[in-house]
Amino acid sequence: MDDLAPTQPAPLPYAEVTDEAYAREAAATFTVREFDAAVVLSGGCPRCQDPITFTLVDAVFRRDAPPASPPAPDGPAADTPDRPGAGGTVEPATVPAPREATAPAAPTHRTVFCTCEVAHPFRAEGQVGCGAYWTLRLDVEP
What's the pTM value of the predicted model, to 2 decimals? Predict the structure, then answer.
């Protein structure tokens, strides 16, 4: 008597593809969680069916590092986090203030792509997902 365990189908090969059906399926099946500055979409990828989570944000803030001061020709280096008081000053970076929240005038369209962690054949090093992407109309805004 053979004990054949059910086998998982092989993962689809990586391919950057889209189809209108992907958007329809995602719109019908994904869960939507709203946060102050983000919307998180979760569900099965419409192409590979593997679970994904996709985060949409309204704005990204970046803090630039201050420029490094060159060392004095015959003196100590400028202040650094590992050498406080070594001479010179370090100016703090400026973080832009967040924009005031405003209600969107109309629903927006956002591109979503598969972010599954399954090892799809032919996927380039450092990439995620199966390559599928689609556009969703959002009635909520991050």
Answer: 0.62
